[in-house]
UniProtKB/TrEMBL annotation:
Residue stretches spanning the membrane: none
Keywords for this protein: Antibiotic biosynthesis, Dioxygenase, Iron, Oxidoreductase
Entries under PANTHER family matching the protein: GAMMA-BUTYROBETAINE HYDROXYLASE-RELATED, TAUD_TFDA-LIKE DOMAIN-CONTAINING PROTEIN
Organism of this sequence: Streptomyces kebangsaanensis
The protein's name in its UniProt record: TauD/TfdA family dioxygenase
EC number, as in UniProt: 1.14.11.-
């Protein structure tokens, strides 16, 4: 099926159950190929929300970084990470450290930050033995499919992310903020509408309210854009949630989400969100050397459980500061 843009000379295979897949012959100079086809590739991402390119032979970090730079421009340094990553050079990271037997459900990268990546870039040097797809879901379709009463509340109130930083679970202060210097962390929080409170044991707790529905900066269409389900306690495996609550208490979980007014989000809401995502999920198993481009605002992505080794390198580009973001609620410090 041909892409309709007159500037495009590429054809991607379209199927309803997977992202568009473009098959190419492995070029000698992958970065040069990417530069020459950037406009056509980005046009497909704009139209479809995601594109998987197969055949580029992306195995080495230097080669991957060069392709990413041609397609996305300057790569972003990650801040406010919720879990550790390994750095492979400026703006080039491993996928998030997360147990292989636990899926990472649908989310939009850094949707809780004031400045979010407009484009996500993935490359797979080593595919897993089984599972492990980076699946995608259309945020416009998900928004339309959710009950109006629920989305109207989230659109009215936004959503609240609470975090408790420690050195055992999730990203540490240094991993999340790039430093563990208190003054630098506090200045970052003030500049990014994050309420913070240091605990007696020296740990940090934060709260930040963000919009749950935003307008796409290019298309103007409304998108369900958040990490309400993924970072909520009810998405965790029951035994993991039980351990964390026993260890840290209800208010000390490494991360959790609430309604924008601070009210708890019930398990039934989280199950509904994840079920709606699943109804709109498209997936394609990774093959060695694959490239995937994802419009981070239009399209949610996930990482499915897997077996064997799995190496996926990730970059974020085209930072966007979305106007619909709201400040943290008054009096929300703890």
């Amino acid at each position: 099926m041909s892409f309709s843009s007159p500037a495009s000379v590429l054809e991607a295979e379209l199927r309803p159950d997977r992202p568009p897949v473009l098959h190419v012959e492995t070029p000698v100079d992958a970065a040069g190929w990417a530069a020459g086809h950037r406009e056509a590739l980005r046009a497909q991402v704009t139209e479809h929300g995601a594109l998987l390119v197969r055949g580029l032979g992306l195995r080495e970090p230097d080669r991957i970084a060069a392709v990413f730079a041609e397609l996305g421009g300057p790569l972003m340094a990650e801040r406010e990470a919720f879990a550790p990553r390994e750095s492979h050079g400026p703006g080039l990271y491993s996928s998030t450290a997360w147990p292989a037997n636990q899926p990472m459900c649908m989310h939009h990268e850094l949707s809780y930050a004031l400045e979010v990546p407009g484009l996500m870039l993935f490359a797979c040097p080593v595919p897993p033995a089984g599972g492990g797809a980076t699946a995608v879901a259309d945020a416009e379709a998900v928004l339309k499919a959710l009950p109006a009463e629920l989305t109207e509340r989230f659109e009215r109130e936004g959503w609240l992310l609470t975090r408790s930083y420690n050195d055992e679970i999730g990203a540490s202060l240094a991993e999340s903020f790039g430093t563990d210097d208190r003054e630098t962390v506090e200045n970052y929080c003030r500049a990014h509408a994050i309420d913070f409170a240091w605990q007696p044991d020296g740990s940090l707790r934060t709260r930040q309210r963000r919009a749950a529905v935003v307008r796409h900066p290019v298309t103007g269409r409304r998108c369900w854009f958040n990490q309400i389900a993924f970072l909520n306690e009810w998405t965790l495996a029951p035994e993991v949630r039980e351990y964390l609550v026993d260890e840290y208490g209800e208010d000390g979980l490494p991360f959790n989400t609430r309604f924008g007014d601070g009210g708890p989000i019930g398990e039934d809401v989280v199950q509904l969100l994840n079920a709606t995502y699943e109804e709109h999920t498209r997936r394609e198993p990774w093959q060695a050397g694959d490239l995937m481009l994802v419009d981070n605002i239009r399209t949610a992505h996930s990482r499915e459980a897997f077996t064997g080794d799995r190496q996926v390198l990730v970059a974020m580009a085209e930072p966007q500061r979305l106007a619909e973001y709201g400040p943290s609620p008054k009096g929300s410090r703890r």
